[in-house]
Write a structure and sequence with these properties.
The complex is a heterodimer of chains A (362) and B (128).
Chain A: E1 6-7, H1 11-16, E2 20-24, E3 27-32, H2 36-45, E4 48-51, E5 56-60, H3 63-69, E6 82-88, E7 94-102, E8 108-112, H4 117-126, E9 133-135, E10 140-146, H5 150-156, E11 170-175, E12 178-183, E13 192-198, H6 202-212, E14 219-220, H7 223-232, H8 266-275, E15 280-286, E16 297-300, E17 303-314, E18 319-326, E19 336-341, E20 344-351
Parallel strand pairs in A: 1-3, 4-14
Antiparallel strand pairs in A: 2-3, 4-10, 5-8, 5-9, 6-7, 7-8, 10-13, 11-12, 12-13, 15-18, 15-20, 16-17, 16-19, 17-18, 19-20
Helix pairs in contact in A: 2-7
Chain B: E1 7-9, E2 14-19, E3 22-27, H1 29-35, E4 38-42, E5 49-50, E6 55-61, E7 65-69, E8 73-79, H2 82-85, H3 89-92, E9 101-107, H4 115-125
Antiparallel strand pairs in B: 1-2, 2-3, 3-9, 4-6, 5-8, 6-7, 8-9
The chains are: A alpha+beta (362), B alpha+beta (128).
Amino acid sequence: MVVTAERTPLYEEHVRLGAQMTNFGGWLMPLQYTSIREEHRAVREAVGLFDLSHMGEVRLKDDAVAQRLLTRDLTALRTGRVQYALLCHDDGGIIDDVLVYAVADGGYLLVVNAGNQDSDFDWIHSHAPDGAVFNVGREWALVGVQGPRAVGLVQRLTPSALSGVKYYAFIEGRVADVACLISRTGYTGEDGFELFCGNDDAGRLWRALLEEGQADGIRPAGLGARDTLRLEAGMRLYGNDMDDKTNPLEAGLEWTLSLDKDFIGRDAIVRARQRGLGRRLVGLKMLDRSIPRHGYRVLHDGRPLGVVGSGNVSFTLGYNIAMAYVPPALTEPQTRLEVDVRGSAAPAEVVALPFYKRPHPK
Amino acid sequence: MPDVSGMRFSESHEWVKHDGDTATIGITEYAQSQLGDVIYLELPTVGQQLDAGGRLGVIESVKAASDLYSPVGGEVADVNQELKDHPEYVNQDPYGKGWIIKLRAIKDNPKLLDQKAYDDFVKGKSPT
């Protein structure tokens, strides 16, 4: 069987920039351009530019269906605002984590994980009347501009006043004369924007941001840096830190649940809470130089009782970190655990999430 | 261009250079570019015996952990301690200050490639 990875409208830009490409969720994406370390640092200290066009978008025009499928109460979500929420199965297992945009012409735009976009759409479609849901991910490009200099950079390229666009809010406007949905969101732990535009305009927007950003020390950043950045920020990655066998409470996502409304999976989640959870996601700080990775076992006094969801080096903090599932009795900060790294028990301790918070949040 | 004269190469992308009765071992430019940012190396201790083609240690990049293999056999005579604090030397200078270990009492490996053969081997792998 030959599986052909899809290309984003920015594929040629990545090739021109010498990116190392990788298949992620069925999409051919830049893993890195020069160095994950340098791209990570650029986002923490200056500004980084990401192609996120692989992300899926699902347009859902039926408010009642949205309210029934999403874990979070949407009645208070005003037009122009964004919320992080989940889609769950009847048994409470997580189907996907999504951003919900309350758009001006009614209903919602859901931004979903690249590898889930078609299965998410099918699932939503199966719960919605005809004409209420559209799979529009391949019609939209998405460019992330993230870092302490991101807001200033985008502001220089748009007549819209961005100071009025709060975190988790969005406006429609023009950036570099390209019609965009300008969203103050991100997956890096830094301030910045995610810019949605039509596929045909993506190259023009990308090149304009790279050129204008030279003065800010901008770097194009690949999925490698995106992963080390989001891990420091304690942001879960679907497929690594949660999947359809994970209950949102286990993943530490109770804040995304409106248990006083009826949504698919609610009853199972409430029952799981009453029964008591078997495991919870915690942060781990490694106490030696070992690098914890997805799937490595977590030990307590030599006994295996947990597993790493995501782990890597933290370039910002200077030590190695992981998010891992462990029994609830072992979730207190400073609890000593070990990670089985190729047969050696590497010492670790539980720490609060997120590992990294940006110094001056706006 | 880095000086790779006198080096021979393995198909698992290590290089070896003989100097008297010791041999210095590292990974190739191609290997470091494929691994990306190196963040940690798990290496043998001085005195340990390695077989030609046997496991030498583990190199960890941001992307993944990969096994290292010894292109020749011998006894570990020295380990590059600088890499503990500067694993990025492997990326910056894989044939120079990014060297990994030195062996003595060498047992040679006739299956190694010369530079021309290794370059052809790598070209055959490249995705273009």
